[in-house]
Amino acid sequence: MSQVSEERDERVGDIPPPDPAAGPDPVSRLEPAPEPPAGQRKSESATNARAESGAASAKAENGTGATAAGVPANGEPAASGGNPGSGEEAGPEKKASRAGRNLPAAIGVGLLLGAAIIVSLLTVRFLFIGVIAAAIAVGTFEFSGVLRRVADTKVALIPVLVGGQAMIWLAWPFGREGALTAFVLTVLACLLWRLPGGAKGYVRDVSGSVFAAAYLPLFGAFAAMLVPPHDGVGRVLTFLIAVVASDTGGYIAGVLGGKHPMAPTISPKKSWEGFAGS
Asked: Where are stretches of biased composition, namely Basic and acidic residues (predicted)?
């Protein structure tokens, strides 16, 4: 045992002392640094607080903070509207029309369409078919969009548009037979058009397509059949006067006393009082 202790003391004695020029000892670098004085710690804390306050003020000035974006610090939406971060206040909301439509636009479109119909009837009656065909095409496109939004019904738009034009243009030379033949072919085309989409929603989509084909183009074809007789101009003008009177009466009655909606899901502004006025 004494021999082992002597050998250990010899090995320890062989380790050279640390050289002051070589820097601190590696073991001493692992020891924690001495804490700064209390006064220095307070000064650093105050500096950090001033830096955080300056950053928050810069965010607020640039409109990137929560309050500048229209969301207060408590997470609730701001009371004032307008464009977030722009400093603009929301103006008064526009009052919606009680009839559910843009009245100036509706009157303008009606006047233009009526003028085109009267000009075509007084010059070349065959042009009346073109006016009817264009109006039916636009109406079919809009009606299919309504069915998609309200009832999630996908109308076979191309067969209905093409078949609708066929109904109108064939009604002039062939009368009812031409319009009904085109309608039957349109229904068959809608059945085939929807087949690749699968069985889910097939009946709903086909029913909507057939309804769209009957509601607009087929009825429009009967309007086209009013022109060929010798008194066709008088028939069309009588029909237009009746339509305008019906629409105007329904509008006035609905605005003044409409309180019972007919179909709130499809057309919330249409009322039974307006229907009676029509």
From this structure: 1-13
Helices 202-213, 127-151: axis angle to 10 degrees equals 150
Residue 163 domain-assigned (yes or no) = yes
CA 74 to each of CA 65, 71, 80, 256: distance values in angstroms, whole numbers, following the listed order = 13, 8, 15, 45
Q: Which of 191, 208, 228 is the last residue of a domain?
A: 228
DSSP, collapsed to helix, strand or coil, labels residue 268 as strand
Q: Do 271 and 222 share a structural domain?
A: no
Chain segment 134-182, per-residue pLDDT in tens: 989 999 999 999 999 988 899 999 999 999 999 999 998 898 999 999 9
**In 10 A of CB 31, how many CB atoms?**
9
In whole angstroms, what is the distance from residue 228 CA to residue 271 CA? Answer: 37
249 and 179: one domain?
Answer: no
**219 alpha-carbon distance from chain centroid:** 31
Q: CA-CA distance, 231 to 246, in Å (whole number)?
A: 23
Residue 216 in any domain: the answer is: yes
Statement to judge: residues 186 and 154 lie in one domain: yes
Both structure tokens of 114 = 């009526």
Residue type, 177: E
Report the number of distinct structural domains present in the chain.
2
φ and ψ at 262, to 5 degrees? -80, -50
Question: Tokens in use for 210?
Answer: 């057939």
H helix runs in 2-102, sequence order? 2-14, 26-29, 38-62
24, 74, 216 from 163: Cα distances, Å: 96, 60, 11
Its domain, for residue 264, covers 229-278
The answer to whether 131 and 204 have CB atoms below 8 angstroms apart is no
Dihedral of CA atoms 102, 108, 226, 120 in degrees, nearest 10, equals -160
Helix (H) or strand (E) holding 261: strand 261-263
DSSP 8-state symbol, 271: E
Task: Read off the pLDDT of residues 113-142 as tens digits, 9 standing for 90 and up.
Answer: 778 888 888 888 888 888 889 989 999 999
